[in-house]
Amino acid sequence: MTEIDTLHILNKAPEHPRSAECLRAVEPGDVLLLIESAVLTLATCRDLQAGITIYALAPDVLARGIAHSAAEASLVDFPAMVELTARAQKVISW
Length: 94
Description:
Largest sheet: 5 strands, parallel
Helix content: 25-40%
Oligomer: single chain
Radius of gyration: 12 Å
Structural class: alpha/beta
Distance between the termini: 25 Å
Order of helices and strands: EHEHEHEHE
Shape: globular
Strand content: 25-35%
Mean pLDDT: 91
Number of helices: 4
Low-confidence stretches: none
């Protein structure tokens, strides 16, 4: 199991100021996990892949009907989300 230096967990919608702040803070090598309304970022933002790994919580993607827009993210379930947080040295929730 590979360790993650920094895991950013974003739950804000793309238009929320914290969403933009998070996306500016994520650096190459970091991991971004989109949950709740933040999964809408997959449908609205095309500049997410700056050397970061992107995950999205599958139930939130499916609930919002944007599975077709989630190609750039790996979909995870709740147990995988917990595993990601356990692997991270630092977790930042936005």
